[in-house]
Amino acid sequence: TVLVTLADGVLRLTLNRPDKLNSFNEEMHMALRAGFQRAQDEDAVRAVLLTGTGRGFCAGQDLGDRDPRKGGPVPDLGQTLDRFYNPTLRLIRALEKPVICAVNGVAAGAGANIALACDIVLAARSAKFIQAFSKIGLIPDAGGSWSLARILGEPRAKALALTAAPLPAETAAAWGLIWQAVDDDALMTEAEALALSLAAGPTLGLGLTKRLIQAAASNSLDAQLDMERDLQQEAGRSADYAEGVTAFLEKRKAEFKGK
Ligand code: LHQ
């Protein structure tokens, strides 16, 4: 359900249930989580590239698995979030390595919000982001209520969530929700080039940068200045910093080791 390959420091995680627009069943949840866990555990992984096969990126939860007509007890969706979605969301945000998401087609429900939890999101021009939850009586989950409100502010966050209006990639980029909308046929080339270049970067420093920027919204300026001091001290002790400065002085390209 998830294709996993590691090459040149990039761990590629490709959601692979194209007949169901890569919607989540339990197996895909566990496979995706294992992928991010591997990214955290292995030094050889220096960037992650998340995408999907087929014409969609991810349509959120597989609703076929939730058919109320089949009877049985009412499922506890809070438990579904605790067991399946939230650990993956936390892993993505806590992973101190860049996570690039290439949204190759429609991203709906939790599928949209997993994309928004990634560090750099590129989307095919034809892709759309849909907060589909309100269509089925649910609330935005998988971190969506948090990221939409933070990134867009209440007016746009509420309108998207209440109406489930599809947001085209271009508008998502114009609103600052994602990094870029790119031509459909250029998406994977651009996303891979970006992932490769980040994987060849000073991973320790990039990881600290991610931590710092994620902390900014809930820190005071004073707390953030202290954090910059502490993390710069740590970055300054890295071999990659010494290499970066040496390479600059020698007018050559730096060869970062990620430490
Ligand atoms: C699907 C799905 C899908 C199964 C397309 N499931 N088959 C939920 C519950 C539990 C716990 C906590 O969290 C959550 C979080 C959530 O994610 S809730 C939101 C769930 N997702 C949705 O409500 C989106 C449902 N899908 C759609 O609205 C449409 O499929 C979109 C707008 C994504 C794409 O529309 P189209 O491009 O017109 O494609 P399609 O609808 O024809 O879908 C293609 C196939 O994929 C189709 O199967 P079929 O056998 O007829 O070809 C769909 O049934 C299947 N599919 N999404 N979530």
TrEMBL record:
Top-level lineage group: Bacteria
GO molecular function, one term: isomerase activity
A Pfam short name: ECH_1
CDD domains, A to Z: crotonase-like
EC number(s) reported in the record: 5.3.3.18
GO biological process terms on file: phenylacetate catabolic process
Keyword annotations of the record: Isomerase
First-level EC class: isomerase
Membership in a protein family: Belongs to the enoyl-CoA hydratase/isomerase family.
Name of the protein described by the UniProt record: 2-(1,2-epoxy-1,2-dihydrophenyl)acetyl-CoA isomerase PaaG
Native source species: Gemmobacter fulvus
Name of the gene: paaG
